[in-house]
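Page 42, continued from yesterday. The earlier attempt failed because a stray header line got pasted into the input along with the sequence. Redoing it now with the clean sequence only.
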Amino acid sequence: MNPIQIESWSLRVIDAVRAGQPNEDFLVELKREWPAPQKAARRIAGHANAVRGEKILWLIGVDEKAKKIHGASGDVDLADWYPKLEKHFDGFAPRLTPLNIKVDDALVVALLFETDQYPFVVKNPSGGHIQYEVPWRENTSIRSARREDLIRLISPLVNQPKIEIRSGIFQIIEVSQSIPSPDKEVSNMDFYLDLDFYIISNPKLTITFPFYRCDLKLYLPTSGLLETFSLEIRSLKPKGRTDRNNTHASGIMASRLSGSTFESLSPTIQWSPDQIILNGSGMLSIKAYKRFSLKSDDLLSKSKLEETDEDVLIRLEMNSFDLESSLIIETAMEKTEAERGCFASWEIKQ
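This time it went through. Structure tokens are written below.
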């Protein structure tokens, strides 16, 4: 979900609060003030477990009872609050995308949590024999999960395909030298990604992944989110048939079109311009491409790309109507020595 979508969702909720309408969206939680990290951890975990993979939205600075928008307190620093909250989780906490939203003279903080890594478990702050809890939200209250709740959590995972990443490379090619402008320099960069992975899937099931329900994100930890590559196929043919010899000078097979494409390397996986159909286990290869115009004063600039030694994080989310939760592939790539003609390069180290 991009910032525009988060803001649009948030403003719809805020408009409803102002109109005196009760919040009936189970995916939304409204808070007048920042909750304490320990209390928030249990409530977020319960909320995330109950929605089983759906995204949830918390709005800080919205008073539903008073029907007013007070704005979030400036005394709380999100960079300090969220790490404190994470410490109360056993394992992963839901991934967070924050967004500040200006509403008249108030500043509302929207917190979008991704819950696809459920179940979420929190630590017992009191210690003792019961060390952990799986919280569960029921209506607006939080309680411990019962057996039937745990069955609801686990059952969608039974038929979930498993992923084994085999290899991957991400490279950046400078297409043209920096172009001076009145106040900054602009560099055109081509981003190429080549990722091979093996899917282990139940042969008794047919699972279809439409490309419009797939999303590929590239993260550089020092600079945040770089870009989202669309996996929707538009009039591209299987690369195994037409582009096998279309190799870039850097060694990456990639389409020169802005977008992404899948190449099926297994007879158990059917390919079409719109979707992939799993009829069992097999190997898949995804190749993605995107051109960026990077300005010298951007958060991610040419000089910062050149200087960084940070890993690149690749996150592929594939959604199917045949599964109750998303299929998530996440992997880190280490920076390596760039090949000739390549500006920067990252690879998966086995």
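Notes: The radius of gyration is 22 Å.
Reminder to self: strip header lines before submitting.
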